[in-house]
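Sync notes, pocket subgroup
Present: LS, DG
LS reminded everyone that the earlier model was apo-only. Rerun requested with nicotinamide-adenine-dinucleotide included. Inputs:
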Amino acid sequence: METVQNFINGQISESNSQRFSPVFNPATGKQTRQVVLSNEAETEKAITAADSAFPAWAKMPPLKRARVMFAFKALLETNMDRLARLISNEHGKVYSDAVGEITRGLEVVEYACGIPHLQKGEHSANVGTGVDSHSLMQPLGVCVGITPFNFPAMVPMWMFPIAIATGNTFVLKPSEKDPSFALELAALLKQAGLPDGVFNVVNGDKQAVDVLLTDPRVQAASFVGSTPIAEYIYSTASAHGKRCQALGGAKNHCLLMPDADLDMAANAIMGAAYGAAGERCMALSVVVAVGDETGDQLVEKLQAQIKEMRVGPGIVDGPENDMGPVVTAQHKAKICDYITAGEQQGASLLVDGRHLTVDGHEAGYFVGPTLFDNVLPDMSIYKEEIFGPVLVVVRVPNYQTGLELINNHEFGNGTAIFTRDGESARQFSEDVLAGMVGINVPIPVPMAFHSFGGWKRSVFGPLNVHGSDGVRFYTRMKTVTSRWPASVRLEEHASSFVMPTM
Ligand code: NAD
């Protein structure tokens, strides 16, 4: 059985931990690898490597750091097919979706290629007579990233390209469910010319994470995962004096107005609810239909489309499937339990995905697309993040009730409105309590040159990931105010004891 190891100081580092976690191919249900669960000493070794590499890397001109990013981007492109297959085989998502996630990560690498410009700081001449001010955006030191299973490529790439390009060193702790991609990243970064120790990978669970959050040499922690863990990461890292951004779970609603183009909306909702088997933090899992007629028409269109969906393995010889399996047997069981609970709590189960089997893949972790109507706000399928292919429809009488429903939910990651009315769209984007808003766009994930992050209990910490917030997160500002005395020309430099005003 292949063991997924660590990558420390430029090479694979064999762990002596006796703890392992199995890694499966979700489409077959077979174990393909095991991943090491690192102990404290191994995690500290990675931090030591990153700490030792920091001074030289931080001093390297940004232009040279950017050139490593350019080479890394080219390598990602050359290796795209192999990498996408690796993701599909460990995560389960279909091949083209795996290509899509690598591409979204690659766009952050492209953004990081512009670091000489992004890290310039500010300059003001003559803030007072003969006095100039400029700011330096300096790297922090060792930064760490703790990432979820659902985007083994994109989420780490939300973090480390900017961290590294700004002159920090990095330790990545990937999800133990699909850990292999992280080692590919490490190998490609080395091939791109990244000095040893600048990027390290430690595989593990809470034991490794706790070392990363408490070691005094670590300056900043980025986390993406579920809300209870995000909250734990934020409070622990903050209590140990670290800068922290922790992105949590979601329950993304769309508000479907009666004037929407319903065909367009139904198509958009299908992809956003069932793509990647609903295992996306920006998956659309709740439709708030305004008016019964809107609700009736929508569920009719969705039911027709669900019948046409192809569910099966992520990699096939013929036409691609629309949706693959979910990540583990435990996760499949959890999703099915939610469906049972929804049924018991009185929601109308229009399409039930619990009993789907895929020919030739009977042991795979497949759950079919599931649709509930007449869902009420106190049901667990409404309140909680299911993270599977389960879409719930809630009916409301008007815009205001729909908006209030969305705003009262615990999570506020993304949201969308479907309408033809500009005024409703404008009002919605102003009043809704969510970090990312789509107008006739079901999954409004910001591009790499904007920043990604939710509101409410979908995020802990003030700065979002990538874009200008990413650069801010991984740098600290130092403002220099300078005067060059022209002692030969000025008559006197008397001491002043009052607050200087210009
Ligand atoms: P998870 O919280 O179980 O795990 C995330 C990471 O935390 C993993 O690396 C895991 O090893 C580690 N971890 C787990 N338990 C821990 C503990 N007790 N102490 C320390 N570390 C621990 O999340 P997941 O199941 O891998 O991913 C799915 C979740 O991630 C969903 O809730 C989804 O919404 C969320 N997510 C959010 C975003 C976002 O941008 N807001 C993006 C992707 C995923």
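DG: The chain has a mean pLDDT of 96.
LS: The chain is about 40% helix and 25% strand.
Action: DG to write up.
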